Amino acid sequence: MTRPHPPTGPGADHPSPADSQAGDPGTAPGGALSAAPGGVAGGEAYRSLADDVRGEPAASRARRGEAETYFGRPGRALTGHPFAFGFTAALGVLSAWLLVQALAASASVLILIVVSLFLAIGLNPAVRRLEERGLSRQWAITAVFTGVIVFFVGFGVAVVPPLATQTGDFVTQLPTYIGELRNHPQVRALDQQYQLLDRLQQYLLSGDLGRQIFGGLLGAAGVVVSAVFSALTVLILTLYLLASLRSITSLGYRLVPASRRERVRLLGDEVIKRIGGYVAGNLLISLIAGVTTFVFLSIARVPYALALSLIVAITDLIPLVGATIGAAIGTLVGLFVSLPTGIACLIFFIVYQQIENYLIAPRVMMSSVDVPAAVTIIAALIGGALLGVVGALLAIPIAAAIQLVLHEVTLPRQDRH
């Protein structure tokens, strides 16, 4: 049996009018379709031309099919070819590497966004309470945000002037301190043996100290500018996120399929409620710690009581070690005043920490976050190792959200199987 040869010759691609009239019963002598729309010939010609979406004539398609049969069957697609697989895998690895580089480059910005989002969620309960008392959401957000700005301004006013004053006093009294060291017997004996004071005086009079101080001041100025810029960015982002929190959550729920949207909405609202309760409760506990510390330090006549109380309030936000850091700073300043004042500060902080841990914190956190102590410690350690203080602050509410999803979704699904 012989293979049919493809048609060749000058008329292969363009059939003659006679062939068209004889071979295509749906065409009229003038080359047009049959005028009878319901006729068999006209319907066949209409279907043969309509089936080709590219506008290719039926005869050409038939001849192309014969040519494909003659020259062999087409090979399999290149989708499973090793070269295609390797090229696709290389593109995937390159895309993943570029994505990781982009995330690493924008890590600081992403951290600011996450912190602002958590602050917005934490301030949302206060906004809702003001709304329940008759204020519109716009005025409620304005009132809450004004309180936040007043706190930051008060912290700057309370901390910056004492630091500047103490730094200036130290620089002014530095020669006096060196003279007192010369009169000390032990320091005098060491100076006679190793010439410590002479070397210190030469170092102070040389230009190395000035260059180091100038470089240190530039580095400190850079850190201060970066901190101020980050604080302003967080404040602005928090304001915008707090104002658009409802629209953000609504848009997030609309991305979920309609069959699961209601359950996701209930779980999401509960997660936001718990995170907001934790952040708001932690802020309230820190405020109580700062006010109590200020009252005690004012009674004990410890200098810079307002600045120290603000430092205690801010460090109290840090899980596990924050309260200890604030207590150590307050006790150290008390020791500079006198030994009895330092001991009184130490006793005060120890007693207050017990009251906060067993009376204040359980009552404030009763309706917000119920995370076991072991999970709290592990979450704070992992968050601190990943993102430092910010990670330790955010780890506990994230652990509470994960715990809620496990109890409401994962464990019931495992129990059904």
From TrEMBL:
It is a multi-pass membrane protein. The chain crosses the membrane at residues 83-100, 106-127, 139-160, 213-242, 275-299, 305-325, 332-353, 373-406. Residues 25-38 have a biased composition (Low complexity). Residues 1-38 are annotated as: Disordered. Its main location: membrane. Pfam families: AI-2E_transport. InterPro entries: AI-2E-like (IPR002549). Keywords: Cell membrane, Membrane, Transmembrane, Transmembrane helix, Transport. It is found in: Cell membrane. Signal peptide: none annotated. This is Pheromone autoinducer 2 transporter. Belongs to the autoinducer-2 exporter (AI-2E) (TC 2.A.86) family.
